[in-house]
Amino acid sequence: MITLERIEPRPWKNGAGRTRELAVHPRDAGMDDFEWRMSLAEVAADAPFSAFPDVDRCIVLLRGAGMHLRSEDGRLDQRLGEPLEPFHFSGDAALHATLIDGPSSDFNVMTRRGRWRADVTPLSDTHDASACAAALLLCRSGEATISMPGDAPRNLQSGQAALWRHDAPALHIAPSFAATLLLVQLRPLCQDAMP
């Protein structure tokens, strides 16, 4: 179980914001050689987003009014203002984030293109998730009970995340009333992507 506030924030790759890394694969990978990476970002001011060539990205607003993402060439122009609504985009181009109305926080998952795929699903109702290579379940608010074959149920509270780095089992997820969660399931797209 990961308690989000216990993770030490670090500067972004470009130094313009702060991030809390939840998980990276391989474990010792840096910003240029990861296979997949999941993190939380705090955006307190308008700021550039670094380019990540050959990486597919997904960003999800967690708190705040959100931001407007734009690329210099105008090909990407996206308002990110709806909480828990995943937005998938290419990491190839550098973007600029303009805050809509004050600081925001968001969840990010990045996968090496052609090697991994991230399925990102917001949850507020009971959900049965299939087994996959790796997974993360983040509790944004409320709480949830997670049941797995052959294991005792676990409780997940607001501000916590459950992580399965390898061989994530099938999950039965039962959120409490008005709970909001985010499920990320990672699947390899080629044989040598698995450890």
Automatic annotation (TrEMBL):
Query: Which InterPro entries did the record assign?
Result: RmlC-like_jellyroll, RmlC_Cupin_sf, Uncharacterised_HutD/Ves
Top-level taxon in the UniProt lineage: Bacteria
Q: Name one Pfam family in it.
A: HutD
Identify this protein by name.
Answer: HutD family protein
Taxonomically, what lineage is the organism?
Answer: Bacteria, Pseudomonadati, Pseudomonadota, Betaproteobacteria, Burkholderiales
